[in-house]
Amino acid sequence: MFDSLGDRLQGIAKRLRGKGRLTEADVDEVLAEIRTALLEADVNVGVVRDVVARIREQTIGVTVSEALDPSQQIIKIVNAELVAMLGGETLKIAYSSIPPTVILMAGLQGSGKTTSAAKLARWFKSQGRQPLLVGADLQRPAAVDQLRTLGAQVGVPVFSEPGDPVNTARRGLEEARRLGKDILIVDTAGRLAIDEEMMQQVADISRAIIPKYTFLVVDAMTGQDAVSVAKTFDERLAIDGVILSKLDGDARGGAALSVKTVIGKPIAFAATGERIDAFEQFHPDRMAGRILGMGDVLTLIEQAEKVFEVDKAEETAARMLEGQFTLEDFLEQLQQLKKMGPLSGIMGMLPGMPKEMKDAQVGDDQVKLTEAIIRSMTSHERRSPEIINGSRRTRIATGSGTQVADVNKLIKQFTEMQKMMKKMGGLAKPQGKQGKGKNKVSTRQAMRELGDMFGGAGGPGGFPGMPGAGGPGQFPPFPK
């Protein structure tokens, strides 16, 4: 999502590079492109009109300093407007002084509400909280069974009982207090459309349990319809925030860019994939950075911290710098990387990543191929790849369902990577017998060669188009 909008906005910045002043004609041309880009992204017309007017006000006749060029200035202004459109600040959860903190989930049928309830419970659990899920969706067959299954996956208990949904929610609150739970998440019945009877039901549940937060789950794929739904729900329930499901889809993203401005309520969380852990707190500034190609390194670090064990990572790093990194170590790193989700999603968080690298399935396919080849080796071969002769390579290729050429390429690239790691290790040691940096290489060069392990993509420091990389698509560094 947002790829098309991001491409258009980054293209605008590129064409402005080299200009010393933004004339009114320049601004008119830029604003026309921004307006088109936002409308094509299915952003609310009124929102587009207001945003374009604010950008015009900030750009006409402004002479930039020596440290900035017009492309940087435009991106700075557009970034600020995107952050404002997406909500401005991250919603900080304030917990009730007397537990539990009650959260009511509402939304249309098929919006991903029940799954989002379980994902939200998992998120609270990761924050050190003790949630309880309540299945008050007694309309849809097997809805409670689905919630119990999801609850088991995330290790969160589920309470439900047949009968009246309002009474079930009330009893769930009593159960949370009895069990000493500090978070109560109530899943309510979805609607096929805005249905007065069903709207009254969720309003009655809200009055019975008095939630601290009422979250509306919105399918990000539905575009402007999602904004209309949010407006109607807000009028009846006074929602506190929106949870966007299916943010990883290929829709244009208009709902995410319009909902805050139209109803005045922030996006609280976003589901970024089908996996139960593909759920994150929504950060407007980080999302704006992704749209503009500036990446989202903070979220990437947070995800890495969840899956990589610090002690093991430090041991692996030490072996790398000492030239003792083996294919067994590499296989373990691949398995950890897979836990972070699709490689394309990780690529999207790296600054300046070319669009073809974000979209390409080749990255994930290359990981699978590499893993298959390494798994077809013996432990001895993984630790000492230099012993892998012709007959061994044929056996490995047959066992992994690949070609001998693929095995040759992997071994060659891994050997080169080991050499590079030894050189980088030299950088970390005091100069002595090594002389005055004879074998020194830049970190950017090292990262570029490491990235070649996955089809010549380059590493985070070596992608063309990264700030300071000097490539033809270099994105301007964000001015401070």
What structural class should be given to the helix and strand makeup?
A: alpha/beta
Strand order of the largest sheet: 3-2-4-1-5-6-7-8
Q: In CATH, what is the class of the largest domain?
A: Alpha Beta
The percentage of residues in β strands lies in: 5-15%
Helical element count?
21
CATH superfamily of the largest domain: P-loop containing nucleotide triphosphate hydrolases
Q: What does the model show?
A:
The chain is an alpha/beta fold and 480 residues long. It has three domains: 1-86, Four Helix Bundle (Hemerythrin (Met), subunit A), CATH 1.20.120.140; 101-282, 3-Layer(aba) Sandwich (Rossmann fold); 323-341 and 365-423, 434 Repressor (Amino-terminal Domain). The protein has 21 helices and eight strands. The protein has helices at 3-16, 24-40, 45-59, 70-85, 113-126, 143-154, 165-179, 196-209, 224-237, 254-263, 284-291, 297-307, 310-321, 327-339, 343-347, 355-359, 362-375, 379-383, 390-400, 404-427, 443-451; strands spanning 101-107, 131-136, 158-159, 183-188, 213-219, 241-245, 267-271, 279-281. Helix 14 (327-339) packs across helix 17. It starts with a helix and ends in a 29-residue tail after the last helix. The model is unreliable at 430-480 (pLDDT under 50).
